[in-house]
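Backbone-to-sequence.
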């Protein structure tokens, strides 16, 4: 009888260890793939206005999430200079885009980098001065 009791206690002990290991793994892996609370992802959802004309200075507002002081705006291509960047809130940045008179026309990718996280791009379009005048 004592041999049988010892075998059952050993089995229970092994099962307890397995459950502890399983629970530890479940808790450890539960956080995998989730963003840490102290370093949220930055997102960019829009830029307004989303176009400007060659030779023009355009005041823009970028909307997204998790913008922090020191955020920077990135633009693809050349001929556009970003200035007066201000993080108004965690969801809004204002800036001025100076579009050179000879800037290439067409779509540009705009991104925001904040707290080490760079957003996906939204589009800002450079129009020719002539196409703008033709619409008037």
């Amino acid at each position: 009888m004592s041999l049988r009791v010892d075998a059952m206690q050993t089995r229970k002990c092994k099962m307890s260890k397995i459950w502890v290991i399983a629970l530890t793994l479940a808790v450890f892996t539960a956080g995998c793939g989730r963003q840490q609370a102290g370093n949220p992802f930055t997102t960019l959802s829009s830029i307004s206005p989303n176009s400007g004309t060659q030779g023009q200075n355009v005041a823009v507002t970028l909307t997204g999430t998790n913008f922090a002081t020191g955020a920077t705006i990135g633009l693809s291509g050349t001929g556009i200079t970003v200035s007066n960047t201000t993080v108004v809130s965690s969801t809004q940045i204002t800036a001025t885009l100076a579009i050179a008179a000879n800037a290439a026309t067409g779509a540009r990718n705009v991104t925001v980098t904040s707290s080490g996280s760079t957003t996906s791009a939204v589009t800002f379009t450079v129009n020719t001065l002539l196409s703008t005048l033709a619409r008037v």
